[in-house]
Amino acid sequence: MTDAILMLCTCPDEASADLICEQLLDRRLAACINQLPGLTSVYRWQGRIERATEIQLIIKSHAALFEPLRQCILAHHPYEVPEILALPTSRGHQPYLDWIKQETS
C-alpha cells in the first residue's frame, strides 16, 4: 500500500474545473489532475432523478493532504454537495509515486 490517493471530483463546466485545478496545483495539493469532459452523470438529488453533463477530475495526491484538498475544493466548487472521493492506491510505479510526493511537498 502506498500513501498516494486518487481523488474524484465532478464539475459542471470547464471554468469551474479549470479554477479548481489551478487552485490545487498552485497550493501544491496535487501533482497532476486529469480533466475528462463529456461525462454524463445520472443521480438522485432532492427526490428526483437528474441527468447532467460534467467534467470528471482525477486528482493525484497523497493521503496526508486529503483535508486541505477537500477544503480547497469546497471553497471553489459551485455545487452545494460536490463529489469528493479519495481512493487509495495499493501499488504503483515507484518513480511515479515518488514524483507525486515530490510535487506535493
From TrEMBL:
It comes from the Bacteria. InterPro entries: Ion_tolerance_CutA (IPR004323), N-reg_PII-like_a/b (IPR011322), N-reg_PII/ATP_PRibTrfase_C (IPR015867). It holds the Pfam family CutA1. One of its GO terms (molecular function) is copper ion binding. GO terms for biological process: response to metal ion. Gene3D superfamilies: 3.30.70.120. Belongs to the CutA family. This is Divalent-cation tolerance protein CutA.
